[in-house]
Design brief:
This protein is α/β, with parallel strands linked by helices. The protein has one domain: Rossmann fold (3-Layer(aba) Sandwich). It contains 5 helices and 5 strands; from the N terminus they run βαβαβαβαβα. A 5-stranded parallel β-sheet has the order 2-1-3-4-5, with helices on both faces. The chain starts with a strand and ends with a helix. This is Response regulator. Keywords: Phosphoprotein.
Length: 122
Amino acid sequence: MAKTILVVDDSASFRSVVGLALKGAGYEVIEACDGQDALTKLDGRKIHLIISDVNMPNMDGITLVGEIRKLPNYKYTPIMMLTTESQPEKKEAARAAGAKAWLVKPFQPPALLDAVAKLILP
């Protein structure tokens, strides 16, 4: 069975690009347009990895990470931040909230897939 990845980004075109790369590698992809939308998708089904932007309306990525860590079903789900941000403070805030990896946009699909392969739950 394919592993499922939740992609959270306020840019529909960016979600599409990430989704195509992941689907091409055999993953199932669920999309969410911001942190609040992402939380509605975490309905108990198995999610093997969450990839989230940092800057989004309604709920930013770092707040989202903290909220996900409060959910028993998703407490240990690996989370990767995929963002244009590269400030050490933001990275540290994300790590403190529970994010496991940080990839800066624009990204190369092989780099994304390599990071996904290292992080994804068995």
